[in-house]
């Protein structure tokens, strides 16, 4: 069964120079256990186990010298911790019963272990049994009032025992016994292991007791196994459980009970038990002790402890095989008690340094875990809630306004506004100053934003004339109907509303995500408060979004109803620039034809169309006239580019299609070198080409020289011109009115598109973001009822934390207090 040969150790009675007496070491262990220290660190102790009717209770009674509860069946219904203390001869004997609550009524471990007194200090040994029975009744009824159990009599105890629903409890009954005849020793007596489960058909009691035993005999404890010699050792489950917990037998001490039950003639049986006592069978490191305890008649007769010890010694001195055993020194209860006291003291002493290290390490880990949790609220609830609101609202304002540390929201919104700008610019009217059937080169739309779908449909001279014709009413000849101009403006404004709504929806999504994230960060631990904050914030977002939509509709109404601007200087400048560009393009076309060039005209690099597109590089046709570049709808260049002032490449005979085909439409990257609507510069505005039919028009340096001479001549007359102004001196075009209309609408687009993008941005920022952030604190303050008479009660409800965080903090605080108490015990 149990293995290992016995090794006798010489255990000194003195303190071995550690500065503490044996009693002090036992007291340290006692204090640590009273705080529940045994649940967090391994504190050495003695655990007494045994089968039912193995004589365990009689052994405990012999050691303590006090009567214990006795009845049929199991005497011990709960763990029973006995703490013996030797006192001076002048100090009278006394006893104090405690209950150590380690589990609640449902069997769940308590966070805070508490040891409470049960009843008054006892000065008579005969009072102990009744008080212990009362304590057993109390732990088996954990919901009852302890003070009631202290006073109940024997009859009521029997009635409770008969009706009790719980047969066992894991809470501990403790008794401190102090007297001059005792030794310094503490041990835990566990309920007897049930062999016969007739009264427990479901096996619940059997499982509970064995689980309790297995829990207690782990770690550094000494296992005191009571083994009845009235049965074979192999049949006793207590020894089996001890061997499972201590396979090497290094912590196991056997106690052979009921030595007087072996018949004198059973020589074989006597020899088997003698072999066990002397270490030849079932050996353990600490060996075995043998006891002869009072029988039923002697107990009923009230035999005194000293008389019982004397009778025990007489039995072993006179009865074979014990009287002739080589281990006669291990026969008798007194030898067992002395050995246990000294061995336990030594193990406690040797374990204290490790216990301190373990406790300090656990305390540091516990503090780190507590630091990682939100601190418990210590201030007045209303003030605390209001501070939370102010911090939250100030944070929202900082992100709305933007700062080096709070730039994400503003930057994300700026990207949405850039998309809006590209969307609006992509609606630029695509006027081409040629007849539809006479397009001189393939043209393509240039888009740089993914959200822009399709192409802007080009409008040729024929298309514009038809639009003018459809609006003619009672005008005098040579007057373009104003309604035609308005209709062209309305055309490019049609998509602005959807672009604006897309922009606002994108910003709303960004704001919703931003607010959700910040609410989670600041109110996650307060579930009730978070729910209300989220609701109020979403209400405010919705309310300000509705106001903003109204403002955006007002802007849309302005643009639809008022095709006007006070920015007349810029409008006139852009109108003149576009008109000159259109006329220059047509003049260049005529010059190319007159020079018998098969291409219409060449483009500046990179080539571009009249409405924001580029001609494929392979189709570029150098011309004897200045290079031209037109950009209409692109997000980067929506004004005509001026011609280069340098020489023009020679003419080449390269056929250019007369019409743009679908295959010629290709998207090309946007250039960021020049913003949309930038007026033509000196070096980039198309130069006028002569409309004469001269066979050899001026080119290169000759043309440049002629231009300079012309400009110089005008300067002598006091007229200052730019190279592009020379286009104004070309012959009047038969499409002059159409070109003027195209130039004016295109110029107005540039003014209006810039204006609407800015107005939309201002409206969203002001009415949605700024006004929302400004009104948020007051809305939250009122909705939370912080101004109400019952504000304190409301705030206490708001600040109820997540139960998981509360439970974790409570557990950590309880453990921290427990560990600090253990360190305090070690320092005493």
UniProtKB/TrEMBL annotation:
Domain Dynamin-type G per the UniProt entry, residue ranges: 40-353
Region (Disordered), start-end ranges: 613-695
Residues in GED domain copies: 738-828
CDD domains, per the entry: DLP_1 (cd08771)
Biased composition (Low complexity): 633-645, 685-695
One GO MF term: GTP binding
SUPFAM superfamilies assigned to the protein according to its UniProt record, in alphabetical order: P-loop containing nucleoside triphosphate hydrolases
Record key words, sorted: GTP-binding, Nucleotide-binding
GO cellular component, one term: mitochondrion
Single Gene Ontology BP annotation: mitochondrial fission
Polar residues composition bias: residue spans: 652-684
Nucleotide-binding keyword on record: yes
Stated name of the protein: P-loop containing nucleoside triphosphate hydrolase protein
Annotated source species: Lentinus brumalis
